[in-house]
Specification:
Blueprint (H helix, E strand, L loop, with lengths): L2 H13 L4 E3 H11 L4 E4 L6 H9 L3 E4 L3 H15 L3 E5 L2 H17 L3 E7 L2 H4 L11 H5 L5 E4 L6 H13 L5 E7 H5 L1 E3 H7 L14 H13 L3 E5 L1 H5 L3 H11 L3 E3 L19 H7 L2 E5 L22 E6 L13 E4 L2 H12 L8 H22 L8 H14 L4 E5 L2 H9 L8 E2 L10 H12 L3 E6 H5 L5 H6 L4 E7 L28 H6 L4 E5 L2 H14 L3 E6 L19 H6 L7
Parallel strand pairs: 2-3, 2-4, 4-5, 5-7, 6-7, 9-10, 9-11, 11-12, 12-13, 14-15, 14-16, 16-17, 17-19, 18-19
Antiparallel strand pairs: 1-8
Helix pairs in contact: 2-8, 4-5, 4-19, 11-15, 13-15, 17-18, 17-23
This protein binds adenosine-5'-diphosphate and magnesium ion.
Length: 589
């Protein structure tokens, strides 16, 4: 900006401020123009006023107690809405707190934009020691799909457009937008500013697979004797629920939903093979992945659970070309968006499709029915203190009676047991720890679910997982959100009965204060706190929370020795023969 121009603007600021705009308002206008309605925020220098002005300009700005949870909420909002969730933080420490969530969004392929205030380049680049000095852009880069910095008010429209498109296009991900404090105060002509804004047109265009790819996939699927579909959270994100259901039912293949794809087709669907997981993974001769990666969550498509090596053909739909062959050779890759790929397949297979032989689907169904029947009585127990089965039998019934409830879930045993026991009946009604298996996403997930859907939220939390995000109960109470939190309280991480192997007085590394009353945390902020010790009491407390819609925390006492080390993934803990010999106690875990 020329000196003369600057002087002219200063003069106009005195006489006609309404003809001017500034960095604050251009940023707000650019976000609104691109459909952003909500900001998940933690105020502080230099973005305190940005939050106030955004609220004044009609955006919903929710302030959290810690940036990590504001960020997790933004990431979950991206998954739920197919639009970038926006998180706003202060510089350096606030930015770093938010960065965990940005990396989480990128890892999960969800659209999110982290906007952080930062110090001025002149000081940061010469390392002169500014207030919260940090080269945030450089630090964000490896954790984001894209990272941008805006230096001039007239570039704000461009910066926001780049961020929105990068977050949504192709494989979605997290985008970092660096906003130096000085930018926000820059002033320019309002009409010029308005003209500089960009509304992104079609940020995530349809991507169609080629005809050869489609016919190759049909051939592979047709030749399968024991086919299996695995549906991932990419398919839930894609929001083409009817097309996916049509494809599964037309093919007539048994399917396994990944954790956050549960409910895309109801878990009680006759083709759902969740309760026969071991059988289908081992026996299938063809596995069709729809928006699911063959990563650690599927043991990379190999190992004991997957049966004899080399006996399976893989077909995979994914928007990201480089996902193919990342773990197993993909016989028929279908690269494109799920809706376009599924529609092309449905067209190609036509109406004379032969569903797989009853000898396969019947065997799977029989196994499912047997396992479900065997589990049923355990879910009816009314033991006190509770075990996971008794408590989750109640939650299973609640989700069946209230299928629009969003189920949030984290923990170790609390996660694994809930995932396998509690059916989800509708799409995008389960939010959990995602690809990384993060502890502490629960309250961010719950707040985003309540804000973005308006539905009742039920958060099933391990006591340990809750500890990472518990202060956000104040946020929940402040915004009076319809969130019912159930703490599965077994006094510790994994279990509450660990001992100090030195014989010393400190508690074991994995236990907490015995008989803690998490419910009292909730009443401190005006929410409802309930202490329950049996499934019947739990049922009653959830019913009251749902009826009132009030923020509620239920401290559900679980037996201290219920659960196991690391839940279902204890095998990921390293071990050594030396340690086994040195600590005989280790064998008992
Ligand atoms: P899960 O953990 O449920 O198995 P993943 O996160 O591993 O799911 O996989 C999701 C996959 O879905 C990613 O590889 C991502 O590229 C893909 N994906 C996301 N959105 C779409 C879309 N609209 N169309 C096609 N693939 C998508
Ligand atoms: Mg615990």
């Amino acid at each position: 900006m020329g000196v003369e121009n600057k002087a002219e603007l200063m003069a106009r600021a005195e006489t006609a401020p309404e003809t001017l705009t500034d960095g604050f308002h251009l940023l707000i206008d650019a976000l609104k123009l691109n459909g952003v309605e909500t900001i998940y925020n933690v105020p502080g220098i230099p973005i305190t006023d940005l939050g106030r002005y955004a609220q004044a300009q009609g955006l919903r700005v929710l302030s959290f107690r810690h940036e990590q949870h504001a960020g997790y909420a933004a990431a979950a909002a991206g998954f739920l809405t197919k639009k970038p969730g926006v998180c706003m933080t202060v510089s350096a420490p606030g930015f770093l707190n938010g960065l965990t969530a940005l990396a989480h969004a990128t890892t999960n392929c969800w659209p999110m934009i982290l906007i952080s205030g930062s110090s001025e380049r002149e000081i940061v680049d010469l390392q002169r020691g500014d207030y919260e000095e940090m080269d945030q852009l450089a630090i964000a880069r490896p954790h984001a799909k894209a990272s941008y910095r805006i230096l001039h008010a007239e570039d704000i429209g461009l910066g926001v457009a780049r961020a929105v498109r990068a977050s949504l296009s192709g494989r979605p991900g997290g985008v970092y937008l660096d906003v130096p404090g000085e930018l926000l105060g820059q002033v320019m002509d309002a009409a010029e500013g308005q003209k500089s804004l960009i509304k992104v047109v079609e940020p995530n265009p349809a991507a169609f697979p080629g005809p050869d790819a489609v016919s190759r996939a049909v051939d592979v699927l047709k030749s399968a004797k024991k086919p299996l579909i695995i549906i991932g959270k990419g398919a839930a994100y894609a929001q083409c629920d009817d097309t996916v259901r049509d494809l599964v039912e037309t093919l007539g293949f048994p399917y396994l939903p990944m954790s956050m794809a549960k409910g895309l087709l109801p878990d009680v669907h006759p083709l759902c093979a969740s309760a026969a997981r071991s059988l289908v993974l081992k026996e299938a001769d063809c596995v069709f992945l729809i928006g699911a990666r063959l990563n650690w969550l599927l043991s990379h498509g190999k190992g004991k659970a997957w049966g004899e090596p080399g006996t399976k053909n893989f077909v995979q739909i994914d928007i990201e070309p480089t996902e193919m062959d990342s773990n197993q050779g993909i016989a028929a890759p279908l690269i494109g968006d799920i809706e376009s790929c599924a529609t092309a397949l449905l067209d190609a297979i036509g109406s004379d499709w032969q569903k797989p032989d009853e000898s396969w689907t019947g065997a799977v169904r029989e196994k499912v029915e047997g396992n479900v029947a065997r589990m049923a009585p355990r879910l009816q127990n009314n033991n006190s203190p509770m075990d996971y089965h008794g408590a989750l039998g109640v939650v299973k019934q609640v989700m069946a009676d209230h299928p629009d409830t969003v189920l949030v879930n984290e923990g170790a045993n609390a996660l694994d047991m809930t995932r396998s026991i509690v059916d989800v009946h509708k799409p995008r009604k389960r939010l959990d720890v995602g690809t990384w298996g993060i502890m502490g996403v629960g309250m961010g997930n719950a707040i985003a679910a309540a804000v973005e859907t308006g539905n009742q939220v039920l958060a099933i939390e391990g006591d340990s997982a809750f500890g990472f995000c518990g202060m956000e109960v104040e946020t929940i109470c402040r915004y009076d959100l319809p969130i019912c939190i159930v703490i599965m309280n077994n006094n510790g991480i994994y279990r509450g009965d660990g001992e100090n192997w030195s014989g010393g007085e400190d508690p074991s590394t994995t236990v907490f204060v015995k008989d803690a009353r998490y419910d009292i945390m909730m009443t401190a902020f005006g929410g409802v706190g309930v202490h329950v010790t049996s499934p019947d009491e739990l049922k009653q407390a959830i019913a009251e929370a749902f009826a009132s819609g009030k923020p509620t925390l239920i401290n559900a006492v679980i037996a201290e020795d219920a659960g196991k080390e690391s839940g279902n993934i204890g095998n990921l803990n390293p071990s050594s023969v030396v340690a086994q010999a040195r600590y005989p106690q280790a064998k008992k875990i």
